[in-house]
């Protein structure tokens, strides 16, 4: 902004120049206020997005825990089935022993298939989690940039305010 130098006329400064300068300052101040409001709206929007992403991240972390618990449960069940099959095989006749081995084999296949499915689900959840973390990082960078722009605007506003006080 240019410095305010007014022509001196008889009995003070030129009223037209003072009025023009005042109008220009008022216009600049209005623009700065509008920009400030817009930046605050953007910051609030980013905060809401950040909260939503945090909630989604928490949800995915809960899903990851559930998947791990399910894997452990599947492993325990597979172990229990194996133990039962071993005990049954020892007490039954040869035919019962063959039947128990068949059941054990099928159960083990199912457990392995379920473990493989759970691992795939875990990998997908981890990929989603990584994408969310990247998005959060991007949003944080955008927020930081907006805060910098906001600080600059506030500094300009302060300079303008100080200029108006003179």
What labels would you give this structure?
166 residues, 2 strands
What is the fold's blueprint, element by element?
Blueprint: E1 8-9, E2 12-13, H1 15-91, H2 94-165
Antiparallel strand pairs: 1-2
Q: How is the main sheet built?
A: 2 strands, antiparallel
Strand content: under 5%
Rounded to an integer, what's the Rg over CA atoms?
Answer: 36 Å
Q: Overall mean pLDDT score?
A: 85
Q: What is the assembly state of the chains in this entry?
A: single chain
Inertia-based shape: rod-shaped
Order of helices and strands: EEHH
Instruction: List low-pLDDT spans.
Output: none
Distance between the termini: 14 Å
**Count of strand segments:** 2
Q: Treating each run of at least 4 consecutive H or I residues as one helix, how many helices? A: 2
Order of strands across the main sheet = 1-2
What level of helicity do the residues show? over 70%
Structural class: mainly alpha
Report on this model:
The protein is mainly alpha-helical. Helix content is 90%, strand content 2%. The chain has two helices and two strands; from the N terminus they run ββαα. The chain has helices at residues 15-91, 94-165; strands spanning 8-9, 12-13. A two-stranded antiparallel ribbon has the order 1-2. Strand 1 and strand 2 (12-13) form a beta hairpin. Helix 1 (15-91) runs antiparallel to helix 2 (94-165). The longest helix is centred in the N-terminal third of the chain and has 77 residues, at 15-91. It is rod-shaped. The mean pLDDT is 85.
